[in-house]
Every structure is written in structure tokens, then in C-alpha cells.
Description:
Blueprint (H helix, E strand, L loop, with lengths): L9 H10 L1 E4 L5 H15 L13 E4 L5 H7 L2 H11 L4 E2 L7 E4 L28 E2 L8 E6 L11 E3 L2 H9 L7 E2 H7 L9 E3 L7 E4 L5 E2 L9 E4 L2 E4 L14 H12 L1
Amino acid sequence: MPDTLPALTxxxxxxxxxxxxVRLDNAFSPEQAAQARAILWSASGCNPDDRxxxxxxxxRLGDLAQPIFxxxxxxxxxxxxxxxxxxxxxxxxxxxxxxxxxxxxxxIDAGDTGWHVDVxxxxxxxxxxxxxxxxxxxxxxxxxxxxxxxVGEDDAPTRIRVGSHIEVARYxxxxxxxxxxxxxxxxxxxxWFDTGRExxxxxxxxxxxxxxxxxxxxAQMNRGTRVKFMAQPALLPxxxxxxxxxxxxxxxxERAIRLALxxx
Length: 264
């Protein structure tokens, strides 16, 4: 796709505002995905050709910043999409791709498959249940799901509650800048903003799901036969999202929040 063409159509942007996510195919190349997987296999301590080394349901790797990951996070297509969803000059290029959960085929539940919203500040609290998120999404402009392997319905695709970002925005708004903690959300909304609509983040290697930061999602066990490789970084904002702008130039990620509050 030429760099001059937009990454997302108007219809896709409308779906992002209404549903809370958009799927971007071919965001990076199969060759880049293969190069990244080789690094991840090595870092995992597991052997792709020896299933006896696949002893854990999940292996988590830290914030890897090799050049290939920097390239993947900053392809021209992704930069165009970031501009379209968050606004030119309102986000920071990524130098890495955050945490990599590698999910192996296994009957063991790793205990990390609950519904949640990714929190984005308050990390100084020793208990992660006290980490927070607010209506301005301090510290996070987008949630992103990078697929480094082909992911079908049995390969532990991330579960997404469609439209849940609208309900989350309405829940966060009364708390203002202080926001809510994970503990608050567990107590106040044990249903985790169930919209009755769920989709699975499937796709071939090179697919990226660009999600509203308030989107409720969950991991799941890998019931298939192949290993799932993904990254789940945040797109960092240069400044918190704005619900009120003097110039009225709202990005789609902000328009979704405004829509929620206008309708709430």
C-alpha cells in the first residue's frame, strides 16, 4: 500500500468508535514475523521442534527492543493508523513491543484468563489491584494486539467484548482524574461490562488489532496444536486524551469517549 493512502477507511474508523477495535491486516510482513518468532523461541528457552520442552501453558517475555521489534511497531501502515485514530503528533513512537505472552497448547489453566481493562497509571502501588485507569486514559492512547503467528479459533485468540469501551467510559467519568482501580472494577462490575457480544482476535501473522484503551478483553487457554506468539503493547500518548478541545478536533479514540458520555 502506498504511503500516501490511508491505512483505515472511514467505515473502519466508524467501527472502531462503535465497537472499540479495528483489525489491520498485513501491518507487518510474514518475513518480519518469522524473524521475530526466532528471537522469541530462543528467549523462551523452548525448542520449536521438541514438544517436551513446552512444559508451561504460558511463557512471558519482557520488553524486547531488538531492531526487528522496533521496525514492526513503526511500519508506515501502522503510523498512518496511529495518526488516524489518535491524531498526528499526539502519540509517541514505540521503541519496543512490551510484554510477549507465548501460549503453548496445554490443558493447564494458567489462571490469567479473566476479563479486564488494561490499567495505565498508579504503578507505584505494590498491589496490582490498586493500579488505575481514568476517563482521559492517562498513559495509554491505544491497546494493541500484534500477532506474530497465525491464530485460529483454537489457538488462544484474545477474547474481546464488543462495545465494552462505551460502558467503561461511562463508569470512569464520575471518578475524574483519579480514575478507578482494578479492585474498584472487580467490586463494582463483576460482570466486567458484558455487552453480550464477543469476538475472537484471530488472524495470520502480521495482523494487528488496534483497540480503544477501555476495551474489555481476556486471554484464554490454547486448545490447539500450535504455539501462539503475540505482543500487547500500549501506544503511548504525548498528553492525556481530551474530552473537551477548544478547536473541536477530536480524534476517533476521543470521539468514542464523547459518544459514551453524551449517551450516558
